[in-house]
Amino acid sequence: MLKEIHTILSLTLGVPPKPDDEITWEYKDKFGNFHSIKTTPKKFYKKHLGFDAENYFSLINDPRNTPGLYTVDKLGNIEGGKPIEYVNTSSTNLKKAAINAIKNNEPVFFGSDVGKFEDTKIGLLDVDSWDYKLGFGTAINLTKKQRLASGSSAMTHAMVLTGVHIVDGKPVRWKVENSWGEYGEHKGYFVMSDKWFDEYVFQVVTNETYIEDKTLVEYWKNKDYKVLPYYDPMGALA
User: Fold this and answer.
1) Per DSSP, what are the bridge partners of residue 39?
2) How many CA atoms lie within 13 A of 193 on its CB side?
3) Residue ranges of the domains in the chain?
4) pLDDT tens track for 99-135
5) Contact at 8 Å (CB) between 155 and 111?
6) Is residue 238 pLDDT above 70, yes or no?
7) Which residues contact 88 (CB under 8 A, 6 or more apart)?
8) pLDDT average, residue stretch 15-40
9) CB of 227 within 8 A of CB of 75?
């Protein structure tokens, strides 16, 4: 199947270059100026990307499981690549790492259940957007743990945290850059309430410099994995 997929991609997009093949990278900067660079994929990664993926791993908030390092069976998407690494911890620790990165002018990849309490038109993620108790006489009372256990919630979409509003030392709302391009008056950006973060954010990608509880770093470095089954909701996104 991989061979067939490679053939389809090569026919439609062109044969992908080998790591040391010369390529021409053309782009426009934020001022609209055109640039052209002759390089190789490996040199482009090292010189222009400025991102060392080896130093990054995921923090997750999975209340079904105890703190520690997790991976998901068959989730790796690169043959021979490093496994998916999830350090399970509290939602508070996810927020602290994200805030520290944002303060350092670094956006934060995160995974969430985007369809819950989400208004695409106005760009809002907030658990108080709809009052089910008022409308139907009943509230949605499942906890985050219960939603994961019952299959009613999972990581379904990746976006980027680009800002946070802090009041008296605590986050109140977050600025989210969606990956569906510019659309609507909000130009593809969402406002996410901190309550929504608690309920529907499951993952943030970070490195050890942004983590305040160094026990979490030790979990990651010790490589003592607990393996979740391939159908686990933590494996829905990667």
Assistant:
1) 23
2) 13
3) 17-50, 53-235
4) 999 999 999 999 999 999 999 999 999 999 889 889 8
5) yes
6) no
7) 59, 60, 61, 62, 65, 66, 67, 68, 69, 70
8) 94
9) no
Closest CA to 203 of 129, 123, 93, 118: 93
Taking CB atoms within 8 Å and a gap of at least 24, the contacts of 51-54 are 54/82
Rg (CA), the chain: 20
Stretch 155-165: mean pLDDT, rounded? Answer: 96
Q: Where are the beta strands (DSSP E) in the chain?
A: 23-28, 34-39, 56-60, 68-72, 86-88, 108-112, 118-119, 124-125, 157-167, 170-177, 189-193, 201-207, 226-228
3 state SS of 105: coil
53-235: CATH topology: Cathepsin B; Chain A (3.90.70)
Of residues 159 and 16, which shows the higher confidence score?
159
pLDDT at 76 over 90: no
pTM: 0.88
69 DSSP β-pair partners? 87
Q: Model confidence at 79, in pLDDT bands (50, 70, 90)?
A: confident
Residue 146 has pLDDT above 90, yes or no: yes
Q: Tokens 């002018």 appear where?
A: 105
In angstroms, the Cα distances linking 17 to 10, 27, 75 are 10, 18, 25
